[in-house]
Amino acid sequence: MGLWGKRRDMVVHEEDPYNAEPPRQVLAQAPCTPLDAFYVRSHGPVPRIDLDTWCLRVDGLVERPAAWSPAQLRDRFEPAEVTATLQCAGNRRAELMAVRDIPGEAPWGPGAISTARWGGVRLRDVLDAAGIGEGAAHVAFAAPDVSQHARPAQPFGGSVPLAKALSEEVLLAWEMNGEPLPAVHGAPVRVVVPGWIGARSVKWLHRISVQADPSDSYFQATAYRMLPADTDLDQAGPGAGISLGPVPLNCDFLSPDTGTRCPSGHAEVAGYAFAGYGGGVARVDVSADGGGTWVQAELDPQVSPWSWRMWRVTLELPAGEHELLARAWDFGGATQPESPRSLWNPQGYGNNAWARLRVSCP
Questions:
Q1: Of 13, 62, 166, 306, which is the most buried if we count CB atoms within 10 A?
Q2: Using CA atoms, how far apart are residues 86 and 84, in angstroms rounded to an integer?
Q3: Gap between the Cα atoms of 344 and 191, Å rounded
Q4: What are the pLDDT digits (tens) for 341-355?
Q5: Which pLDDT belongs to residue 257?
Q6: Which class for 163: exposed (0-12), middle (13-18), buried (19 or more C-beta within 10 A)?
C-alpha cells in the first residue's frame, strides 16, 4: 500500500499535505469507489486528534449551544446513509493549464472525483436539537487542520446556506462504504454536502456555527471563488468573484486511458457523468470524428440522486489516431460547453468542457 493506505499507483500531486487521485481505469471498476482509491484533497497535514476528548460543538445563532461526543451523536440521533459523489473544484484543472498556466495549483486530472456510501446522522437533526435562532442564514464548519497556503496560515473552514444544511442528504459522517471513516478522509467526523464542491464537505469537523453571514474563512471568502479571467490574484481581496457551491454538469472518460493503443474495430469506451446540483444526467453523447457525428452511450442506473452515472459505448474505430469526445446532458436539456478556453480562470476551478481522449489504433 502507498501513503495513507492508498494504492501505490495513485497520481500523487503532493505528499504533505497529501493530495492524490486514482488512475482513470480504477474509477471505472465500480459505482462506489474503494477506500484505497478514493481521491484525497488536503489543505494542511492530517491533524492528530485525541478521540477520548474530541467533541463536536454547535454554537452561534442557536437556542441551545451543545457539545457532542461521538457516542452521544450515535445514541441521540437517528442513523442515516447517503451514496454521494464528491468532486474537487479543481477536477480536470490540467486541461485549463494546457490553455494557460495556473501557477501554484495542482494539475488535477479527471480523477479528483469519487463516490462512497456515507453513514452517520443528518446535520439537520443536530441543528434541530440545538434550535435554530432568529437571523440564521448560513451554517459554518471549522476544522483543526492548518493550511500554509492560506493568507495568513489558518485552519480550514467553510459554510453552506442554511437551506442546504437542512436538506436531508447532508450528513455528519463517520463511515465510508460501511467502514470507519479513515483519518485521511476526516475521522472522527466530517460533513458530507452532496452535490456541492468537495471543499464544503469539511473534514475533521470540530465546530458548527449557525450565523447570519457566510464563513469568513480564507477558503470561503478568498479561495474557491470563480474569478474573471483577467483578475490579478494579488489584488483580489475577500469576496471577489462568485463563491463556488453546486458542482456543474460534468463528464469524462475512464476507460481506456489516455494514449492507449486500442485494436482497430470495436472499441469499448466507458466513463462517468455527474450533475451535482441534483438535476440528474439524462444522456451522454460520444463522438469519434471531432463532433461531426455523435452516438448515445448506455447509462448505468443511478445509485442515488447525488451520485454519478457510469456510461459505456462501443465505437467503430479504424486504424489511426483518434480524439474521442464526450458530453453529458441533464433533464433540463442543458449540456456542457465545448472548449476549456471559454472556462479558463486564474485558480483553475470548474472545468466542465467536453471530455477529450486520444487513442491510437494500429
A1: 306
A2: 6
A3: 29
A4: 999 999 999 999 999
A5: 85
A6: exposed
Grid coordinates representing 27 are 474509477
Under 8 Å between Cβ of 26 and 37: yes
Helices (H), the chain: 24-27, 70-76, 93-99, 123-130, 162-165, 218-221
Which set of grid coordinates corresponds to residue 201?
464537505
Contact residues for 4 (Cβ-Cβ < 8 A; gap 6+): 18, 40, 46, 182, 183, 184
| Residue 328, C-beta contacts closer than 8 angstroms, at least 6 positions apart | 249, 250, 251, 273, 274, 275, 281, 283, 284, 285, 335, 336
Phi-psi region of 116 (alpha: psi -120 to 50; beta: other; left: phi over 0): beta
Give, in order, the Cα–Cα distances in Å from 42 to each of 77, 146, 182, 214. 29, 10, 13, 22
Name the stretches of the chain with pLDDT < 70. 264
Peptide bond just before 246 cis, omega within 30 deg: no
Helix, strand, or coil here: 35?
Answer: coil
| d(C-alpha 297, C-alpha 312), whole Å | 5
